[in-house]
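Z., the sequence and structure:
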Amino acid sequence: MDNPILVEVLRGKSVESRHRGSVAVVDADGGIVLSLGDCESPVFPRSAVKAFQALPLLESGAADRFGLTPTEIALAVSSHSGEEPHVATALGMLKKAGRDASCLECGAHWPSSHEAERALAAAGLKPNALHNNCSGKHSGFVCLACGLDEDPAGYIRPDHRVQREIRAAGEEITGFTFLDAYTGTDGCSIPTYAVPLKAIALGFARLGTGIGLKPERAKAARRIREAVAANPFMVAGTGRLDTVAMELFRERVFMKTGAEGVYCAAIPELGFGIALKADDGESRAAQAMLAGILHRYVPMDEATRTAFDAKAWPTLKNWNGMTVGSVRATSLLREP
Protein backbone atom coordinates (compact mmCIF):
# COMPACT_ATOMS: atom_id res chain seq x y z
CA MET A 1 0.00 0.00 0.00
CA ASP A 2 1.31 3.43 -0.93
CA ASN A 3 1.98 6.03 1.77
CA PRO A 4 -0.55 8.90 1.78
CA ILE A 5 -0.11 12.19 -0.04
CA LEU A 6 0.99 14.65 2.65
CA VAL A 7 2.26 17.62 0.62
CA GLU A 8 0.93 19.35 -2.47
CA VAL A 9 2.72 21.84 -4.72
CA LEU A 10 0.40 24.29 -6.46
CA ARG A 11 0.88 26.25 -9.66
CA GLY A 12 -1.80 28.86 -9.63
CA LYS A 13 -4.75 27.10 -8.00
CA SER A 14 -3.98 23.69 -9.49
CA VAL A 15 -1.96 20.90 -7.88
CA GLU A 16 1.16 20.36 -9.99
CA SER A 17 3.08 17.89 -7.79
CA ARG A 18 2.36 15.64 -4.85
CA HIS A 19 4.63 14.14 -2.21
CA ARG A 20 3.86 10.98 -0.31
CA GLY A 21 5.32 10.18 3.07
CA SER A 22 4.98 8.75 6.53
CA VAL A 23 4.80 10.35 9.97
CA ALA A 24 5.00 9.09 13.54
CA VAL A 25 4.18 11.20 16.60
CA VAL A 26 4.87 9.36 19.85
CA ASP A 27 4.77 10.27 23.53
CA ALA A 28 7.59 9.51 25.97
CA ASP A 29 5.85 6.35 27.19
CA GLY A 30 5.76 4.99 23.65
CA GLY A 31 2.10 5.77 23.04
CA ILE A 32 1.20 6.49 19.41
CA VAL A 33 -0.28 9.98 19.10
CA LEU A 34 -0.40 10.01 15.29
CA SER A 35 0.64 7.49 12.66
CA LEU A 36 0.38 8.09 8.93
CA GLY A 37 1.82 5.71 6.38
CA ASP A 38 4.44 3.07 7.07
CA CYS A 39 6.08 3.82 10.42
CA GLU A 40 7.41 0.29 10.95
CA SER A 41 9.96 -0.15 8.16
CA PRO A 42 13.46 1.04 9.12
CA VAL A 43 14.68 4.30 7.55
CA PHE A 44 18.04 6.02 7.82
CA PRO A 45 17.54 9.17 9.94
CA ARG A 46 21.00 10.45 9.00
CA SER A 47 21.71 13.94 10.36
CA ALA A 48 18.33 14.21 12.08
CA VAL A 49 19.69 12.28 15.09
CA LYS A 50 22.84 14.28 15.74
CA ALA A 51 21.47 15.18 19.16
CA PHE A 52 21.44 11.46 20.04
CA GLN A 53 25.03 11.21 18.82
CA ALA A 54 26.09 14.14 21.03
CA LEU A 55 24.77 12.62 24.26
CA PRO A 56 28.01 10.75 25.10
CA LEU A 57 30.00 13.97 24.68
CA LEU A 58 28.11 15.52 27.59
CA GLU A 59 27.38 12.57 29.83
CA SER A 60 30.99 11.32 29.68
CA GLY A 61 32.21 14.61 31.14
CA ALA A 62 34.26 15.41 28.02
CA ALA A 63 32.29 18.59 27.29
CA ASP A 64 33.00 19.91 30.78
CA ARG A 65 36.60 18.71 30.78
CA PHE A 66 37.30 20.91 27.75
CA GLY A 67 34.97 23.73 28.79
CA LEU A 68 32.66 23.51 25.79
CA THR A 69 30.22 26.41 25.73
CA PRO A 70 26.51 26.23 24.85
CA THR A 71 27.44 27.67 21.44
CA GLU A 72 29.86 24.81 20.86
CA ILE A 73 27.40 22.21 22.12
CA ALA A 74 24.81 23.57 19.66
CA LEU A 75 27.35 23.24 16.84
CA ALA A 76 27.99 19.62 17.86
CA VAL A 77 24.40 18.74 16.82
CA SER A 78 24.38 20.89 13.69
CA SER A 79 24.22 20.51 9.94
CA HIS A 80 25.67 23.96 9.45
CA SER A 81 25.99 26.12 6.36
CA GLY A 82 29.76 26.60 6.52
CA GLU A 83 29.53 30.27 7.47
CA GLU A 84 32.50 31.87 9.21
CA PRO A 85 31.12 31.55 12.78
CA HIS A 86 30.48 27.83 12.19
CA VAL A 87 34.00 27.24 10.92
CA ALA A 88 35.61 29.26 13.70
CA THR A 89 33.57 27.53 16.40
CA ALA A 90 34.44 24.04 15.14
CA LEU A 91 38.12 24.95 15.13
CA GLY A 92 37.81 26.36 18.62
CA MET A 93 36.36 23.07 19.87
CA LEU A 94 39.29 21.16 18.43
CA LYS A 95 41.82 23.54 19.97
CA LYS A 96 40.28 23.05 23.40
CA ALA A 97 41.07 19.34 23.05
CA GLY A 98 44.61 20.13 21.88
CA ARG A 99 43.85 19.19 18.28
CA ASP A 100 43.35 20.87 14.91
CA ALA A 101 41.42 20.39 11.68
CA SER A 102 43.78 17.65 10.51
CA CYS A 103 41.99 15.34 12.99
CA LEU A 104 38.66 15.65 11.20
CA GLU A 105 37.68 12.60 9.13
CA CYS A 106 34.43 13.95 7.64
CA GLY A 107 35.87 15.09 4.29
CA ALA A 108 35.59 18.53 2.73
CA HIS A 109 32.95 20.23 0.62
CA TRP A 110 32.01 23.78 -0.32
CA PRO A 111 29.79 25.63 2.16
CA SER A 112 26.07 25.25 1.52
CA SER A 113 25.73 28.99 2.20
CA HIS A 114 26.11 30.65 -1.21
CA GLU A 115 27.55 33.78 0.41
CA ALA A 116 30.17 31.78 2.30
CA GLU A 117 30.95 29.76 -0.82
CA ARG A 118 31.47 32.90 -2.91
CA ALA A 119 33.60 34.55 -0.23
CA LEU A 120 35.85 31.49 -0.04
CA ALA A 121 36.22 31.32 -3.81
CA ALA A 122 36.82 35.08 -4.10
CA ALA A 123 39.68 34.74 -1.65
CA GLY A 124 41.22 32.07 -3.85
CA LEU A 125 40.72 29.41 -1.19
CA LYS A 126 39.37 25.89 -1.29
CA PRO A 127 37.15 24.34 1.37
CA ASN A 128 38.59 22.12 4.06
CA ALA A 129 36.97 19.75 6.53
CA LEU A 130 35.88 22.64 8.77
CA HIS A 131 33.48 23.75 6.01
CA ASN A 132 31.80 20.34 5.99
CA ASN A 133 28.27 20.68 7.36
CA CYS A 134 29.12 17.92 9.87
CA SER A 135 32.35 19.46 11.17
CA GLY A 136 30.73 20.50 14.45
CA LYS A 137 29.56 16.96 15.10
CA HIS A 138 32.98 15.58 14.18
CA SER A 139 34.75 18.13 16.37
CA GLY A 140 32.52 16.83 19.16
CA PHE A 141 33.60 13.29 18.33
CA VAL A 142 37.26 14.29 18.59
CA CYS A 143 36.55 15.95 21.95
CA LEU A 144 34.77 12.80 23.11
CA ALA A 145 37.71 10.61 22.12
CA CYS A 146 40.19 12.87 23.87
CA GLY A 147 37.93 13.14 26.91
CA LEU A 148 37.92 9.35 27.13
CA ASP A 149 41.72 9.36 26.75
CA GLU A 150 41.39 7.53 23.44
CA ASP A 151 43.35 8.23 20.27
CA PRO A 152 40.84 10.02 18.01
CA ALA A 153 42.41 8.56 14.86
CA GLY A 154 39.86 6.38 13.12
CA TYR A 155 36.97 7.68 15.22
CA ILE A 156 34.63 7.15 12.24
CA ARG A 157 35.12 3.36 12.32
CA PRO A 158 32.34 1.22 13.83
CA ASP A 159 34.83 -0.46 16.18
CA HIS A 160 36.25 2.80 17.60
CA ARG A 161 35.11 3.54 21.12
CA VAL A 162 33.50 6.81 20.00
CA GLN A 163 31.19 5.00 17.61
CA ARG A 164 30.49 2.24 20.13
CA GLU A 165 29.37 4.87 22.65
CA ILE A 166 27.20 6.58 20.04
CA ARG A 167 25.59 3.32 18.96
CA ALA A 168 24.77 2.40 22.55
CA ALA A 169 23.21 5.82 23.19
CA GLY A 170 21.13 5.58 20.02
CA GLU A 171 19.84 2.11 20.88
CA GLU A 172 18.90 3.12 24.41
CA ILE A 173 17.07 6.33 23.55
CA THR A 174 15.10 4.78 20.65
CA GLY A 175 14.52 1.41 22.33
CA PHE A 176 15.56 -0.27 19.07
CA THR A 177 18.48 -2.66 18.58
CA PHE A 178 20.55 -1.53 15.59
CA LEU A 179 20.95 -4.40 13.15
CA ASP A 180 23.89 -5.02 10.84
CA ALA A 181 21.41 -5.66 8.03
CA TYR A 182 20.21 -2.06 8.41
CA THR A 183 23.62 -0.41 8.73
CA GLY A 184 25.16 1.93 6.18
CA THR A 185 27.77 4.67 5.89
CA ASP A 186 26.70 8.30 6.18
CA GLY A 187 27.88 11.13 3.95
CA CYS A 188 30.38 12.18 6.61
CA SER A 189 31.70 8.58 6.82
CA ILE A 190 30.36 7.49 10.23
CA PRO A 191 28.06 4.47 10.56
CA THR A 192 24.35 5.17 10.12
CA TYR A 193 21.60 2.85 11.28
CA ALA A 194 18.11 2.41 9.84
CA VAL A 195 15.41 2.61 12.51
CA PRO A 196 11.58 2.61 12.30
CA LEU A 197 10.03 6.08 12.44
CA LYS A 198 8.04 5.21 15.56
CA ALA A 199 11.30 4.33 17.41
CA ILE A 200 13.00 7.54 16.24
CA ALA A 201 9.97 9.52 17.39
CA LEU A 202 10.17 7.81 20.79
CA GLY A 203 13.81 8.87 21.00
CA PHE A 204 12.84 12.49 20.37
CA ALA A 205 10.06 12.32 22.96
CA ARG A 206 12.63 11.08 25.47
CA LEU A 207 15.13 13.73 24.35
CA GLY A 208 12.50 16.40 24.91
CA THR A 209 11.39 15.21 28.34
CA GLY A 210 14.11 13.03 29.88
CA ILE A 211 11.44 10.41 30.62
CA GLY A 212 12.85 6.89 30.39
CA LEU A 213 16.47 8.10 30.51
CA LYS A 214 19.02 7.65 33.25
CA PRO A 215 19.71 10.88 35.21
CA GLU A 216 23.02 11.73 33.49
CA ARG A 217 21.53 11.13 30.05
CA ALA A 218 18.44 13.18 30.87
CA LYS A 219 20.69 16.01 32.07
CA ALA A 220 22.73 15.80 28.84
CA ALA A 221 19.53 15.91 26.76
CA ARG A 222 18.36 19.00 28.62
CA ARG A 223 21.72 20.76 28.12
CA ILE A 224 21.56 20.04 24.39
CA ARG A 225 18.04 21.45 24.09
CA GLU A 226 18.99 24.55 26.07
CA ALA A 227 22.15 25.11 24.02
CA VAL A 228 20.25 24.86 20.74
CA ALA A 229 17.43 27.12 21.92
CA ALA A 230 19.99 29.77 22.90
CA ASN A 231 22.06 29.38 19.70
CA PRO A 232 19.76 28.37 16.82
CA PHE A 233 22.08 29.92 14.24
CA MET A 234 24.70 27.31 15.05
CA VAL A 235 22.38 24.40 14.26
CA ALA A 236 21.86 25.40 10.62
CA GLY A 237 22.59 28.95 9.43
CA THR A 238 21.25 32.08 7.83
CA GLY A 239 17.75 31.59 6.44
CA ARG A 240 17.63 27.84 7.17
CA LEU A 241 14.38 26.42 8.53
CA ASP A 242 15.88 24.88 11.68
CA THR A 243 17.42 28.21 12.60
CA VAL A 244 14.40 30.34 11.68
CA ALA A 245 11.95 28.07 13.50
CA MET A 246 13.98 27.73 16.69
CA GLU A 247 14.57 31.48 16.78
CA LEU A 248 10.78 31.71 16.91
CA PHE A 249 9.98 28.79 19.21
CA ARG A 250 13.15 28.61 21.35
CA GLU A 251 12.76 25.86 23.99
CA ARG A 252 9.20 25.05 22.91
CA VAL A 253 10.43 23.06 19.88
CA PHE A 254 13.63 21.17 19.12
CA MET A 255 13.88 20.20 15.46
CA LYS A 256 16.54 18.78 13.19
CA THR A 257 16.61 18.00 9.50
CA GLY A 258 18.15 14.88 8.04
CA ALA A 259 19.04 13.80 4.52
CA GLU A 260 16.70 12.16 2.02
CA GLY A 261 13.48 13.70 3.25
CA VAL A 262 13.77 12.94 6.96
CA TYR A 263 12.80 15.49 9.62
CA CYS A 264 12.50 15.03 13.37
CA ALA A 265 11.40 17.17 16.29
CA ALA A 266 10.49 17.23 19.96
CA ILE A 267 7.73 19.26 21.58
CA PRO A 268 8.83 19.17 25.26
CA GLU A 269 5.75 20.87 26.68
CA LEU A 270 3.54 18.11 25.25
CA GLY A 271 6.07 15.31 25.66
CA PHE A 272 5.80 14.46 21.94
CA GLY A 273 8.48 13.23 19.58
CA ILE A 274 8.07 13.49 15.80
CA ALA A 275 9.78 11.55 13.02
CA LEU A 276 8.82 11.70 9.36
CA LYS A 277 10.09 10.87 5.92
CA ALA A 278 9.09 12.07 2.47
CA ASP A 279 9.17 9.07 0.16
CA ASP A 280 10.96 10.88 -2.65
CA GLY A 281 13.64 12.35 -0.37
CA GLU A 282 12.67 15.95 -1.16
CA SER A 283 13.61 18.43 1.56
CA ARG A 284 10.79 20.81 0.53
CA ALA A 285 8.31 18.02 1.21
CA ALA A 286 9.85 17.07 4.55
CA GLN A 287 9.84 20.63 5.87
CA ALA A 288 6.25 21.16 4.72
CA MET A 289 5.26 17.94 6.48
CA LEU A 290 6.94 18.99 9.72
CA ALA A 291 5.29 22.40 9.52
CA GLY A 292 1.90 20.73 9.22
CA ILE A 293 2.56 18.71 12.37
CA LEU A 294 3.74 21.77 14.31
CA HIS A 295 0.64 23.68 13.20
CA ARG A 296 -1.44 20.81 14.51
CA TYR A 297 0.09 20.72 18.00
CA VAL A 298 1.95 23.96 18.78
CA PRO A 299 -0.09 27.14 19.43
CA MET A 300 1.31 30.12 17.53
CA ASP A 301 0.48 33.80 17.67
CA GLU A 302 -0.08 35.58 14.38
CA ALA A 303 3.46 36.98 14.11
CA THR A 304 5.05 33.60 14.77
CA ARG A 305 2.72 31.82 12.38
CA THR A 306 3.41 34.32 9.59
CA ALA A 307 7.19 34.15 9.98
CA PHE A 308 7.20 30.35 10.28
CA ASP A 309 4.87 29.75 7.34
CA ALA A 310 6.89 32.04 5.07
CA LYS A 311 9.84 29.68 5.45
CA ALA A 312 8.16 26.31 5.90
CA TRP A 313 5.41 26.70 3.26
CA PRO A 314 7.11 29.01 0.76
CA THR A 315 5.45 31.02 -1.96
CA LEU A 316 6.94 29.99 -5.30
CA LYS A 317 8.17 32.75 -7.59
CA ASN A 318 9.54 32.72 -11.14
CA TRP A 319 12.67 34.50 -12.39
CA ASN A 320 10.72 37.75 -12.78
CA GLY A 321 9.66 37.64 -9.15
CA MET A 322 6.06 36.80 -10.01
CA THR A 323 4.16 34.58 -7.56
CA VAL A 324 3.35 31.37 -9.43
CA GLY A 325 2.48 28.84 -6.75
CA SER A 326 2.93 27.52 -3.24
CA VAL A 327 3.76 24.48 -1.13
CA ARG A 328 1.30 23.21 1.49
CA ALA A 329 0.72 20.28 3.81
CA THR A 330 -2.50 18.39 3.17
CA SER A 331 -5.37 18.27 5.66
CA LEU A 332 -4.22 14.80 6.82
CA LEU A 333 -1.35 16.57 8.60
CA ARG A 334 -2.87 19.89 9.55
CA GLU A 335 -6.21 18.80 10.99
CA PRO A 336 -6.75 16.67 14.14
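The CA atoms of residues 167 and 178 lie 8 Å apart. Residues 215-230 form the longest helix (16 residues).

Let me know what you think.
H.
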